[in-house]
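protien #1 (seq + structre)
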Amino acid sequence: MIPYLGPLDLFPPVEMAREDMGGLLAVGGDLQPDRLLDAYRRGIFPWGTVEGQPLWYSPDPRMVLFPEEFRLSRSLKKTLNSGRFEVRFDSDFRGVMANCASTPRPGQDGTWISPEMKHAYTRLHELGWAHSVETYEEGVMVGGLYGLAIGRMFYGESMFSHRTDASKVAFAHLVNYLVSNQFGMIDCQMYTDHLASLGGREIQREAFQARLAELIASGSPRSVWSTDPLDPAR
């Protein structure tokens, strides 16, 4: 049985996650900021809702990307050097979430980014925990991503692209910012070929939880995000 969380119930240990169900750990609770931050600190994340109830996951293995292992391809480096795209940080968080929710994805019917999710993460953004990176072409947003930062840990949530390499450019700038500010790991949650092509890889839950604990306890270098100071194509 999957545990059902009432308003005051704590999360069960992550070792109880059902691997035959993709790492599903619990159902219920709420999407209030304190609940969400507690979940991420424990290595748990919400992935969709059923009848308004959040579904909480902690898969094993876990897809991660260590910033120093980011794979910058020749074609992406060429795009970065071209100056075709303008990149901004935290300039339109709502817009990024809306695009992530509405952009069709191969093999995916609909989106897990429900109105409840949009409201919850927008609130985290207003509180300084959630951040976005946007890619613009001629003043129009054509790609981007969003996620959370706790300590020196970044949790990637979703990305979208309306132009070739637009989301990859945003990701390259994110990685450069994280490296510059000594972040140690990006949680990518689930395996995808796209993330693997950028340098992501799977690690076992035990290793993930140990590294996570170190990074969230190490403190955040700054609370205000801005475009990275170094050229990511360098």
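ok now protien #2
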Amino acid sequence: MAMGPHAIARAYPKSTIIVSEGDRTDSLYIILEGRVKAFVSDDRGHEVVLSTQGPGEYFGEMVLDEGPRSASVMTLEPSRFLVVPKKDFRDFVARNPAFALSLLEKLIHRARALTESVKSLALMDVYGRVARLLLELAEERDGALVIGERLTQQEIASRVGASREMVSRILKDLSTGGYIAIERSRMVLTRRPPAHW
């Protein structure tokens, strides 16, 4: 994808903040290697993870409205990005209607996901939010629902807006009930968790 003459590759170590919520918007970031999380936080250090992304995905597309960054993005592992200046990105979108349509579809998908997250935060208890997240992350592999991304209890807590201790209790109950099996590098949903505990 020829994004523009001024795009440059940059590498960052694990746990580096790439963009901060409220920063001036000036670039699009295409992930070449590694993984990142997008999150929002308050002045007390509490955070909620909005999404994680990997190679081939991008963030910063809101550069088009020239408003401040709506979330922070941090590397979860050593990562490389192609950084595209705002003008080059605007020019590329204007010249490529197929990409513009794809971008629009991605933004609609994100808006729907955020709507579901707000709905679950407002209407579901913590157990329901954990069960929903596990089902969203699970992929079918050889007839089993597998979560290949190894999440810590704190990462799950940040995604569902709960304490790590509460998530720990829920995962223990799900394991004892035979709904999940936690292995070294993955979690397997052996049965679909019930909607309510």
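The first strand starts at residue 8 and ends at 12.
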